[in-house]
Amino acid sequence: MTQVFFKILLSGLLFLIGFASGFAKTPTVKVHYDVTPMVASDAPKIKIGLSFKGDRSGSTKIRLPLEFAGQSRLYQAIKNLRLTISDAELIDTDQPEIKAIKHRGGETIRLEYELIQDWTGAPEAGGASAKPGGGYRPILQPGYFHFLGSGAWVLPDLPKDSKLKVSMDWKNVKENFTLANSFGTNQTAQSFTTDVETFGSSIYVGGDYRIARKNVKGKQLLLATRGKWNFTDEECAGLIEKIVLATREFWNDFEQPYFLVTLLPIESDPQSKSIGGTGLINSFATFVTTNAALNDVVWLIAHEYFHNWNTNAFGGMKQPEQAVYWFSEGFTDYYTYRLLLRAGLIDLEGFAARYNEFLSDYYLSPVRNENNRRVVRDFFSDQAVGKLPYRRGMLLATKWDDIIRRQSNEGKSLDDAMRQILRDARQKKIKEISTDYVVSVLSQYAPYDFAGDVEKYVEKGDTIGDFGGVLGECVESFAVHSGKFELGFDFETARKSKTVAQLVEPSAAYRAGLRNGQKVLGASVYFGITNKPVELTIEENGQNRKIVYLPEAAEKISIPQFKVRENLSENEKKRCLNVL
Region 203-218: what's the mean pLDDT? Predict the structure, then answer.
């Protein structure tokens, strides 16, 4: 069994449920929900009533949840769907997520259904692409619930940009039963205006959750969590407060009146640690194993919160989005660590260490030189390909910030270009982020061929290099030599048949004693990481034995790295931090 000991399940990418057009474009559609949580039993569920005005033609379609963040057939969590009006008929279509209703023209449609957990057990590490759980499908457990809007709400079949006027009454909510969602906390009657797509991108929790409250310049910031952690609720909320403040100060934007972070404990192997999350409207949902330390989640929260601006406030991305992930994800990673440094949540040494991890991961990647067409095609299906735009964008942002600073004599930086993008978006000068637009903005801040860099390093996939001086005078660059990740045998065959096959000779696995045909009883693998040992339990001649080795290829490559100069004075460090 594979154990990924520190698996980061980034869903900083906002995967939103897609709604097809069933209505003509109309004014704001009013929908009302009566929501009754019933989680006190061993078979928890939520009873939901929905009402809205039907089409004047007497024929209306509704849409059930379908997919989100790699999870499919979300309609399986919708049970006992029925009409509660007379002289109307609910009809299946050739699409399981679409239902047709025949009714009197223009009458109010009323339905009821139950939301259940459509898989067994407690939520587990593994996230969107593994077995159900991890936080992306509805979770209904004795004592609490956790679900995303994309997995729970039945709606009229509308285009995704259709405006909704939502009213929601929470029924049978007893004392000490917490309610928290993207639109408010502990409110049993809610009303808000949104659109179909945004309504799907929302989080709802309730039951035995605890609420920690913070105030950021007069605006509400809340943490909703449950279970036991290695840190207190107040410690976690305080860290989130610092991240939110630093990010809002960067953008000079304090308009958001309410923001919710949910922290859901999930199960995993005791030796494994999993940290996942997804950014949503007015909120951020995290799913974390309880053995995580507070510092383990700091970068994820910072990354996802930055997405409230890049690219949510920018108006989205040109399709296919994966082609622009080098900007949306890579630049967000760049600012994640800059803002953590500026907020005092990591020091200069920790900042350099994170760069070293990224550089090692990038230079040792088996797909480092794949072009951007491969990223578009395989981003969601190949983990190594999925990392490429993060690494490329972060490294290009680092180089370009240095170029802008040098050519403007420290008068300008990449920060100024990012803030201009926000201004352009709010002044309706742009509708979406494209590579050409980003290059056009950057070119206003330095006479440099940014378009050439994009073509060379992003589109064609050449290796990004030459990092001397990019982190300021306090940080030196040097090189280390390491081999690429080489497991040494075919893992899929070993996983399926429990047998070693396609052994590489010579390899570290071979030198450690692994041989074709040996029976594999267990395996621990840090995929892509060469300095963490592979541990295999094999059966040989009726005896079990351990095989341990570092999965590093013999051929070495040069990897750029950073280190903080020794014996820096406090004034020197302060001057360097002002630049970063």
Answer: 97
Q: At what angle do helices 348-363 and 570-579 cross, to 10 degrees?
A: 50
Greater confidence (541 vs 396) lies with 396
Average pLDDT over every residue of 190-202: 96
Task: Let me know: does 404 contact 354? Beta carbons within 8 Å.
Answer: no
Question: Cα–Cα distance between 341 and 343 in angstroms, integer?
Answer: 5
Cα 339-341-342 angle, rounded to 5 deg: 65
Closest CA to 337 of 437, 247, 265: 247
Mean pLDDT of 369-377: 96
Structure tokens at 453: 């860099």
Q: How far apart are CA 137 and CA 140, in angstroms?
A: 10
Q: What average pLDDT does this structure show over 133-158?
A: 92
Is there a contact between 296 and 267 (Cβ–Cβ < 8 Å)? no
Question: Using alpha carbons only, what angle is made at residue 96 by residues 94 and 99, rounded to the nearest 5 degrees?
Answer: 80
The torsion of the CA quartet 539, 542, 544, 550, rounded to 10 degrees, works out to -40
β partners of residue 522: 537
Predicted structure pTM score:
0.83
- Please list, residue by residue across 176-209, b when 16 or more beta carbons sit within 10 angstroms of its beta carbon and e when fewer do: ebbbbbbbbbeeeebebebbbbbbbbbbbbbbeb
Q: Quick count: other Cβ atoms within 10 Å of Cβ 157? A: 20
Do residues 32 and 171 make contact, with C-beta atoms less than 8 angstroms apart? no
- Please give the Cα distance from 258 to 361 (Å, whole number): 37
* Contact between residue 59 and residue 82 where contact means Cβ atoms under 8 Å apart: no
Question: pLDDT tens, 497-516?
Answer: 899 999 999 999 999 999 99
Phi first, then psi, for residue 107 (nearest 5°) are -80, 160
Name which residue leads in pLDDT, 398 or 317.
398
Tokens of 513: 């004693």
All domains of the chain in start order, with CATH: 25-199 (2.60.40.3650), 209-308 (1.10.390.10), 318-464 (1.10.390.10), 484-556 (2.30.42.10)
What spatial distance separates the first Cα and last Cα of the chain, rounded to whole Å? 43
Measured torsion, CA atoms of residues 424, 426, 432, 436, in degrees rounded to the nearest 10: 10
Q: Check if the beta carbon of residue 553 is closer than 8 Å to that of residue 484.
A: yes
For 226-243, give the DSSP string. -S--SS-HHHHHHHHHHH
